[in-house]
Design brief:
single chain, 6 helices, 12-stranded parallel beta sheet, Pentapeptide-BTB/POZ_domain, Pectate Lyase C-like, elongated, 5peptide_repeat, Pentapeptide repeat-containing protein, 7-stranded parallel beta sheet, binds zinc ion, alpha/beta
């Protein structure tokens, strides 16, 4: 048996720090962290954990059980406060704040309310484990594999989970605010009631996921893919990106406001009863989409192919589409155009470069009203279709006036 653990850290630029110098643990060659053995006692692990951040790369925690941990104690510890005497319900948590735990393994373990704030867990694996109510704020979790594990009510604020994968795992009511989730893959998992505010979901792949009542806010998602997932009653606002793909998923009863999808593809998506107002779909394709009872006020579908769109008589487009509203505003602000519309000869006015803006907006609005009529007629909503026939004619009328004035 050697006198030191001797575990070789796989990657390091610091040559003086490539081998673990801890004492061997209980008849093993390696220390308590690196011994490849299950059932390490939780209290012993906690004692061995120094107060300062440690290098624990490649640590193995298998079949470790913390018993019940007092989450309030964990919260106090994180603030650097010592829990008062009398905090007797449950034990104190293990604190890995700012430790390096690269490629660590957590397997068949139940270690609740664990503190990983600021820790580097890149490449780590969590398998068949329960770490609910844990703290991963500002931690590096890139390339981490979460497999069949639970992190319910945990915090991942400001954490980096780039290219991490969540498989058959539970992340109920988890806070991911300000997290970087580039290339994240979420498969057959539960993320309901979780918060994704100011995140990056570029290249994320979300499939077979239960995500009811999630909050997604001010988040970018270039190239994100969502399939076979349930986003019922969610709040999704300010989600933007191009080449987004959403298939076989539902946003029933969700607010889906002010999102921007460019060159994106949506197919077999159910927006029944959703509020999709002020969302923009540009140069996209929407196929087999259910907008029954949905609100589409100020929604834009510019250069977007709308195929097999289901509407009900409770689907609302609003009286005027966004393009006509914009044209009206521009016309109001542009005295030249305003006068032209009032048929006052523009004798004293120089040509204004702004004048084409209103024309293109009115062309867009006429086109959009044409599309509204087509999809309303496809849904046998002839009366509603007639309203937009009137609006389309009105757009053409305004256009004709503008054009005739400008050519003079
Ligand atoms: Zn060691």
């Amino acid at each position: 048996m050697s006198s030191k653990c001797g575990h070789t850290y796989s990657t390091t630029t610091d040559a003086s720090d490539t081998i673990c110098e801890r004492d061997p643990w209980r008849g093993h060659d390696e220390c308590i962290w690196h011994a490849d053995d299950g059932g390490k006692p939780f209290d012993e692990l906690k004692r061995e954990r120094k107060d300062d951040p440690e290098k624990l790369d490649g640590a193995i925690l298998r079949d470790v059980n913390s018993g019940s941990v007092n989450n309030s104690q964990a919260r106090l510890l994180r603030k650097g406060e010592t829990p008062k005497e009398g905090f007797k319900v449950g034990t104190s948590p293990i604190d890995f704040s700012n430790c390096s735990l690269k490629n660590a393994t957590f397997e068949n373990s139940r270690i609740m309310s664990t503190i990983f704030d600021g820790a580097d867990l890149s490449g780590a694996t969590f398998k068949n484990s329960d770490l609910h109510s844990s703290f991963f704020n500002d931690a590096n979790l890139s390339d981490v594999k979460f497999n069949n594990s639970s992190f319910d009510s945990s915090e991942f604020e400001g954490a980096c989970l780039n290219f991490a994968s969540l498989c058959k795992s539970h992340f109920h009511r988890v806070d991911f605010e300000d997290a970087s989730l580039t290339g994240l893959s979420v498969d057959r998992s539960h993320i309901a009631r979780s918060n994704f505010k100011n995140c990056s979901l570029d290249g994320a792949r979300i499939s077979d996921v239960t995500a009811y009542e999630v909050n997604i806010e001010s988040t970018i998602a270039v190239g994100m893919e969502i399939s076979d997932s349930d986003f019922k009653r969610s709040s999704i606002e300010g989600l933007s990106g191009e080449r987004i793909e959403i298939r076989d998923s539902n946003f029933i009863g969700s607010t889906f406001i002010g999102n921007t999808f460019d060159i994106s593809e949506l197919s077999r998506v159910d927006f029944t009863g959703a509020d999709v107002s002020n969302s923009i779909f540009f140069e996209s394709s929407m196929d087999d989409i259910d907008f029954s009872s949905a609100s589409l006020h100020n929604a834009e579908f510019k250069k977007t192919k709308l195929n097999d769109i289901q509407l009900s008589n409770r689907t609302e487009f609003g009286e005027k589409c966004i393009f006509e509203k914009n044209a009206d505003t521009a016309i109001e602000e542009d005295s030249f155009v305003n006068l032209a519309l009032m048929r006052i000869p523009p004798i004293y006015m120089a040509f204004s470069g702004e004048s084409h803006k209103e024309i293109s907006k009115l062309e867009d609005s006429a086109y959009v009203y044409g599309e509204y009529q087509r999809i309303l007629q496809e849904n046998a909503l002839f009366e509603e279709a007639r309203e937009y026939r009137i609006r389309e004619k009105e757009s053409w009328r305004k256009l004709a006036i503008l054009r005739s004035e400008f050519v003079k």
